[in-house]
Predict the 3D structure of the following.
Amino acid sequence: MKSIQRVISLGPKRALIWLRTRIGKKIAHLAHLPLWLAFKVRHTASPAIDTLADDPRGRKEDRICEILARIPGGKFLEVGIGEFPRAERFALMRDMDISYVGCDFESVCKSHEVELALKEIDQTRIRFAPNSTGTYAWTLFEMLKSGEQYEVIYIDGHHTFYIDLPAILLADRLLKPGGYLLLDDMQWTLSFLKANLKRSLSQWHFYRKIYNFSEYTEHQQSVPHIRMIAEELFLKDSRYAKDESLSLKQWWALQKAE
């Protein structure tokens, strides 16, 4: 009922855009149903994996907002922006006069722009830096060459070694002294993803072109890549410390030394 009321409140033009977006996604899912079934059959030998024990719902977002509240007038970079924007977070950034840059695939960034417009969120201080090919590592390198710097960088991207290792190293160079490097899905593995894609058509459709399991051995698919990178390259580096008061089981806040 609330969803219907929200759509009606958008007005005829915005409501039509909203419906086209939602219906388009549903049709695309159904059109790819045979390919998803083939994926399930191809990976029947893969062991079933229980859902990772996640942190209580909402706690991560509370911590992100707590950190953002500390940087009024600052800059926030998000690498890997997900399927939908979080309206509450954008409202906080608007109130705190925080500039936002989001990196992801071009199609994902365009989808976020539409969603923000539908929610009537002011995009004056919001910028998307998409990559139409390759990965966001190139985008981050261009930012580094331009001299961009951020108080908070949140990486919730591919979660894999080959893609996120260069991204995290570039994020270190883009982060101001005293700033926060936020890393998500510390226990996430490719094996966990594979099991989820077998369970969910919508998730498989969203991620189907993003992951290539053949690039990794079975052992490498079972290892949490982001945690491995964080422990070996950041926690052993005196320039970074894990903020235990902010970090969660799946989500870490690493603060860079002043």
Notes: The chain is about 50% helix and 15% strand. The chain has a mean pLDDT of 85.
